[in-house]
From TrEMBL:
Domain Solute-binding protein family 3/N-terminal: 39-258
Keyword Transferase among UniProt keywords: no
InterPro entries named among the record's database cross-references: Iontro_rcpt_C, SBP_3_CS, Solute-binding_3/MltF_N
Alphabetized PANTHER family for the sequence: ARGININE-BINDING EXTRACELLULAR PROTEIN ARTP, MEMBRANE-BOUND LYTIC MUREIN TRANSGLYCOSYLASE F
Protein name in the entry: Transporter substrate-binding domain-containing protein
SMART domains the record matches: PBPb (SM00062), PBPe (SM00079)
């Protein structure tokens, strides 16, 4: 009798272990769960006002943050945001550390080789900014100058295309605000950044700038891991937000495109 009971107990334990292993699928899902609440993990580089930054209270703020919150609410998710260097955002998607990226990211053909993108939610333009005492007002004035860009940005790609034509020296930094410090310290002649970001620096630091007439960059879009089931759902929400004025309200709130 004891042998029978012992075998039954062992069988119960084995079944329990197999069931536990079968339910342990934490990292295999693109969207995690917190109890009964679905969680969507967003990665961003919170150094790019007015798109994403961290305020004095330690809260994420900006256009992309508000858009992500609205999307998560519409789809019934709890939003979790992680801050990291811009150059690590695509890697975070590829390694399942994030479900989506909103970070002023242009949907370039090169990036599309590694991630999927939503439809574009904003157009994108670039601007060169410099100190007011520098006589730099056009591309021709860049001849032989040192240009600063953020690592991994569309502007880094763009300035590489201009490098040989204008004999440029390129300096790359991890965080966009460092570019302003480099200008003010005289370590670079100009910085090359998104137009809306540039306007904030111009106003705050008394800089000057001119728009880049040489290229038309792809617009901003949300990035996802390859094959993500979220893409279609998010695209439907973005189309809805474009039609009902939600995106325009967020644009007006953050003063974009002015």
């Amino acid at each position: 009798m004891k042998k029978v009971l012992g075998k039954l107990l062992m069988l119960v334990l084995v079944i329990g272990l197999l069931a536990a292993c079968g339910n342990n699928d934490g990292d295999s899902s693109s969207v995690s769960s917190d109890g009964d609440k679905k969680v969507i993990r967003m990665a961003t580089s919170a150094d790019y006002e007015p798109f994403e930054s961290i305020d004095e209270n330690g809260e994420f703020v900006g256009f992309d943050i508000d858009l992500a919150k609205a999307i998560a609410e519409e789809l019934g998710y709890e939003l979790q945001i992680t801050d990291m260097d811009f150059n690590g955002l695509i890697g975070a998607l590829q390694s399942n550390k994030a479900d989506m990226v909103l970070s002023g990211m242009n949907a370039t053909e090169e990036r599309k080789e590694n991630v999927d993108f939503s439809i574009e939610y904003l157009p994108a333009n670039s601007t060169f900014i410099t100190a007011p005492d520098n006589a730099i007002t056009s591309l021709d004035d860049l001849e032989g100058k040192t240009v600063g860009v953020q690592l991994g940005s569309i502007q880094q790609e763009g300035v590489e295309e201009l490098k040989d034509e204008y004999n440029l020296e390129i300096k790359v930094v991890d965080k966009a605000p460092l570019l302003v410090q480099e200008i003010l310290a005289g370590k670079i002649d100009v910085a090359y950044v998104d137009k809306d970001v540039a306007e904030g620096y111009i106003e705050a630091e008394g800089l000057v700038g001119f728009d880049d007439p040489s290229t038309s960059a792809p617009g901003y879009a949300i990035a996802f891991p390859k094959g993500s089931e979220l893409v279609d759902d998010v695209n439907k929400v973005l189309e809805q937000f474009k039609e009902d004025g939600t995106i325009q309200q967020i644009i007006d709130k953050w003063g974009l495109g002015q």
